[in-house]
């Protein structure tokens, strides 16, 4: 996987997260399920952390960078999610800060960390076979 391709994916997905966090959505169908958007937050931040992990991990020449890539991507995505919640409360009058959204975002990040740790050896082996 090319470094520039992974960076482009990470930047585009970050833009999508930003837009989805700050856009005003019109929902023609009212779904009255409490906290149903939390599943979307979970999934969005699962993918967000995964994409940034791939960028950091495969951008490094050495194979020892697994944990550093995991920490870096998780921290960036967590802080970005927190920043988006703060931006919703301060930059818009139609969105608000929600700790449950932060929790759902964080849950998605933690879940991808667990999944990546399960496949750590396979990812390291795959990376070393490509260098």
Task: Please describe what this structure looks like.
There is one protein chain. The chain has helices at 3-22, 37-59, 66-91, 99-118, 120-130. Helix 2 (37-59) packs across helix 4 and helix 3 (66-91) runs antiparallel to helix 4 (99-118). It contains five helices and no strands. The model has no long low-confidence stretch (mean pLDDT 90). With 131 residues, it is mainly alpha-helical.
Mind sketching the topology for me?
Elements (H helix, E strand, L loop, with lengths): L2 H20 L14 H23 L6 H26 L7 H20 L1 H11 L1
What tags apply to this protein structure?
131 residues; mainly alpha; 5 helices; elongated
Summarize the structure.
The protein is an all-alpha fold and 131 residues long.
- The N- and C-terminal alpha carbons lie at a distance of 11 Å
Content-based structural category: mainly alpha
Please count the beta strands (DSSP E, at least 2 residues each). 0
Poorly predicted runs of 5 or more residues: none
Helix and strand pattern:
HHHHH
Task: State the share of residues found in helices, binned by percent.
Answer: over 70%
Radius of gyration over alpha carbons?
Answer: 16 Å
Count of DSSP helices? 5
Q: Which oligomeric state applies? A: single chain
- Overall, the morphology is elongated
How much of the polypeptide forms β-strand, as a percent range? under 5%
Question: How would a textbook summarize the main sheet?
Answer: none
The mean pLDDT is 90
């Amino acid at each position: 996987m090319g470094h520039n391709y992974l960076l482009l994916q990470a930047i585009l997905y970050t833009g999508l997260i930003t837009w989805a966090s700050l856009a005003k959505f019109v929902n023609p169908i009212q779904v009255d399920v409490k906290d149903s958007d939390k599943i979307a937050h979970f999934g969005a931040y699962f993918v967000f952390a995964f994409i940034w992990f791939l960028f950091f991990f495969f951008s490094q020449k050495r194979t020892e960078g697994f944990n550093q890539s995991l920490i870096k991507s998780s921290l960036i995505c967590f802080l970005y999610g927190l920043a988006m919640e703060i931006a919703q409360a301060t930059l818009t009058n139609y969105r608000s800060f929600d700790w449950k959204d932060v929790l759902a975002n964080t849950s998605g990040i933690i879940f991808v960390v667990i999944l990546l740790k399960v496949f750590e050896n396979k990812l390291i082996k795959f990376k070393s076979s490509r260098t």
